[in-house]
């Protein structure tokens, strides 16, 4: 009986991470995400959004997987922003508001950005994970071009609101959403560039072997 009680007490005192491998895996995955996010311009934003996906990972993500997750998170932000601005544009069109065209122009930029991000996701899915794809430079160039275009789209939307006669609250909410999208796009581009550099290095090492 005493041995049983001793065993039970030791079990209860054992750290949760020692009893649950899944918790250890999530801890390692989060640590990896935090480390990689420090290489971006917006580390806190990066960590906040990407860490939400840790629970769905069975292992620590690779640089490629993290870049893909960041892209999908960015697309989600873009789709959400698109839905909001679309609704605002419909309301302003019905009111025949003078600033409708400015909002419509912003929506066009966001729509283009969404298309560019979809292209990026499809392209990254074509990249092999073994680090020896001869087509990698082509895929990487396409992704960087499209992601840079998506970043420009967000910038142009925000710039288009400067000095315009748009109601304060509407303008503030749209700018906040688009700014969030712009920052997340920047994060995605930084993480993809980091992955691309490592992939290229790995590929070169493999081809150099006799």
What does this protein structure show overall?
This is Pectinesterase inhibitor domain-containing protein. Pfam families: PMEI (PF04043). One of its GO terms (molecular function) is enzyme inhibitor activity. Keywords: Signal. The protein is mainly α and about 210 residues long. The chain has a single domain, classed as Invertase/pectin methylesterase inhibitor family protein (Butyryl-CoA Dehydrogenase, subunit A, domain 3). Helices cover about 80% and strands about 0% of the residues. The chain has eight helices and no strands. It has helices at about 1-15, 15-20, 20-35, 45-50, 65-95, 100-125, 135-160, 170-210. Helix 3 runs antiparallel to helix 4 (about 45-50) and helix 5 (about 65-95) packs antiparallel against helix 6. The longest helix is centred in the last third of the chain and has 41 residues, at about 170-210. The protein starts with a helix and ends with a helix.
Write the layout of secondary structure elements.
Blueprint: H1 2-13, H2 16-19, H3 21-37, H4 43-50, H5 63-94, H6 100-124, H7 136-160, H8 168-208
Provide a short characterization of the protein structure.
The protein is mostly helical. It has helices at 2-13, 16-19, 21-37, 43-50, 63-94, 100-124, 136-160, 168-208.
Please, what is the oligomeric state? single chain
Terminal-residue CA separation: 65 Å
CATH superfamily: Invertase/pectin methylesterase inhibitor family protein
- Tally of distinct domains: 1
Which consecutive residue ranges, at least 5 long each, have pLDDT under 50? Answer: 3-8, 206-210
What is the helix content? over 70%
- In DSSP terms (H or I, runs of 4 or more residues), the helix count works out at 8
Pfam families: PMEI
InterPro entries: Invertase/methylesterase_inhib, Pectinesterase_inhib_dom, PME_Inhibitor
Domain Pectinesterase inhibitor: 28-191
GO molecular function, one term: enzyme inhibitor activity
